[in-house]
Amino acid sequence: MNPPSGVTVLLFGPAREAAGCSRTVVELSTPVTAATVVDALSTAHPNLAPLLGRSRLVVNQHYVEPDVSIGPDDEVAIIPPVSGG
Amino acid sequence: MRTEFEITEVPLDVARVVGSVADTAAGAIAVFVGTTRKSFEGKAVRHLEYEAYAPLAERTLEDIGTEIALKWPQTIGLAVAHRLGTVDVGEVSVLVAVSAPHRREAFAACEYGIDRLKAVLPVWKKEVFVDGGAWKENPEWEHERGGEPP
User: Is B56–A77 a contact, with Cβ atoms under 8 angstroms apart?
Assistant: First the structure.
């Protein structure tokens, strides 16, 4: 049996609106670096690309650097510039 | 220090949130009430829309609480409430209330709380105009480095 492939990415606010969805599955074999996930996301959703460079990356609710390794069960989220308050 | 955090689509009850930090050991309660503006660069705002990454937002508020407890150990109570969903102009969108024995630490902790919230809380605000809308960006975000305290 093949393991499930793909990384689920959560999108919020302007990122959600640019992509047209609040979650998307990026087709990639895991483990994979966060930077690769972002690149694939940018290709799959060109409207999202300009925002991705200004966003931060969160894995399992912790901020991470682009070289972090992501597995199939990880929760990845794109955090665009925040505007709470 | 006791804490109460709330991220909700229900209109915020200022008196209830402020009351939640009241304590007979406190000589001061400092409160910040953020309300929604009616215009941006001359354009009339019809209403605002807020959304959050809720589990990370809750964790972030816990972190801000921990930072406040370290910086102002005399703090007695901290309450933070943030509104989500559709918010009309003039409504309360955010509340920070701090009780402490004396006013200076209450003011300082309250200001720190709203400043940190603006910099790190994963919440997004869209101003909706008659003809479209615009996502806002807090200037504090520019200086933020992954949720680490300054």
Answer: yes
Q: Would you say residue A3 has pLDDT above 60?
A: no
The CATH H-level superfamily of A7-79 is: Beta-grasp domain (3.10.20.30)
B117 CB within 8 Å of a chain A CB: yes
Convert the pLDDT of each residue in A47-73 to its tens digit: 999 999 999 999 999 999 999 999 989
Cα–Cα dist B18/B86, whole Å:
23
Residues of chain B positioned with their CB less than 8 A from the CB of A17:
135
Q: State the CB neighbour count (10 A cutoff) for residue A34.
A: 20
**Does B59 or B145 have the greater pLDDT score?**
B59
Regarding the domain delimited by B2-128, which CATH topology (the fold level of the hierarchy) does it fall under? Aldehyde Oxidoreductase; domain 3 (3.90.1170)
Inter-chain touch A82–B122, beta carbons under 8 Å: yes
A78 backbone φψ class: left, alpha, beta (φ>0; ψ -120 to 50) = beta
Smallest Cβ–Cβ distance between A12 and the set B53, B82, B118 belongs to B53
Query: Residues of A at the B interface (Cβ-Cβ below 8 Å)?
Result: 10, 12-14, 16-17, 56, 58, 61, 63, 77, 79-85
Determine the distance from the C-alpha atom of residue B23 to the mean position of all C-alpha atoms in its chain, rounded to a whole number.
Answer: 21
